[in-house]
Design goal:
This is HPr kinase/phosphorylase. By secondary structure, this protein is of the alpha+beta class. The protein has seven helices and 19 strands. Strand 5 and strand 6 form a beta hairpin. Helix 3 packs across helix 7 and helix 5 crosses helix 6.
Length: 319
């Protein structure tokens, strides 16, 4: 998960600052947090202090049933554990995230755990299909870029941002199956970028806060608003390396397995009923969404051409 454990052991070690139970918003949820998370936008506290999600700090013993060396463990489909060097995290019933940070864990490392795996697994418990993808909104339609870690999902989304389109979510797509088809819920107004890419392209983003030098990428704040309502999912691109920019169809029998392989919460599929329901969700998404393979050279110089190709495809097929 983006090398979180390794980064705990190098660079400076500034303990994550706590807040007096700040309230934020993410994925359309109000989040009351005992930790300072500047990547999430502030939200008003509901009457009575109620929130959809609470993030607390507490001592969490490692589950006895967890395999040695594992980083994810599902007791049931309503109780997950993340077992990192940086922190032990318990996610319950889609409503609470309890965090037991390691001593002197850098603030940015712990925030990557909270707004990454912790929130993403909580979304799974709340009934979303959680796809390992970066998503953008192009002319009111959601486009998801899927692929293995390091293939360029976020930088491809950044290229679309440079052309004036909105980022819906970075590294994960929270997909709900609506009566009219799958829709994507926007996440929070930040994306993890390589400083080299930011320096080269100067995207419309804000500088990162509370940076840890051991991180290869940092959270950069987005300057645009997030859509208040879910956005219809129009297209999923499977990113692959290639010598030229090519867009190909994906065989129908390969499409479902491509989504299964890129399910963010693969580790949770061992919980009762999860594998079957996940496969069913993948099939429904395939039935209502076009999935294509996008091959391109993985170089920063080609990013504008890749974004232009995606936009021209969507435009030509909507005519």
């Amino acid at each position: 998960m983006d090398g979180i454990d390794g980064q705990l052991r190098k660079g400076e070690t500034s303990r994550m600052a706590t807040a007096n139970t700040a309230t934020y918003e993410a994925f359309g949820l109000t989040v009351r947090s005992a930790f300072d998370v500047p990547e999430l936008p502030s939200a008003e506290t509901a009457p009575g202090g109620r929130a959809d999600v609470t993030i607390t700090e507490e001592r969490i013993p490692r589950p006895l049933s967890a395999a040695s060396g594992s980083t994810f463990h599902a007791v049931t489909e309503r109780e997950y554990y993340l077992l990192y060097d940086a922190a032990t995290v318990r996610i319950l019933d889609g409503k609470s995230i309890a965090v037991d940070p390691a001593p002197d864990v850098p603030s940015e490392v712990l925030r990557h755990v909270l707004v990454g795996p912790a929130l993403n697994h909580l979304l799974d418990q709340r009934g979303y299909f959680v796809l390992h993808a970066s998503t953008v909104s192009i002319d009111g339609r959601a486009v998801a870029f899927v692929g293995e870690s390091g293939v360029g999902k976020t930088t491809t989304a950044m290229a679309c941002l440079l052309d004036g389109h909105r980022i819906l979510s970075d590294d994960v797509a929270a997909i709900a199956l609506d009566d009219a088809g799958p829709v994507v819920r926007s996440g929070y107004p930040s994306m993890k970028l390589d400083p080299e890419a930011v320096e080269a392209f100067d995207p419309p983003v804000e500088p990162p806060e509370q940076v840890h030098s051991g991180r290869p990428r940092h959270f950069y704040g987005l300057r645009h608003d997030q859509p208040a309502t879910p956005v219809p999912l129009e297209r999923i691109y499977l990113l692959e390396d290639g010598e030229t920019i090519e867009v190909d169809a994906v065989r129908p029998d390969k499409q479902v397995m491509a989504l299964v392989d890129n399910t963010y919460t693969l580790g949770a599929l061992e919980a009762d009923g999860q594998a079957v329901s996940n496969f069913t969700a993948c099939g429904e998404i395939v039935d209502m969404t076009e999935i294509k393979r996008l091959r391109r050279p993985r170089t920063l110089d080609m990013l504008p051409d890749v974004a232009a190709r995606v936009q021209s495809e969507l435009k030509s097929e909507s005519c």
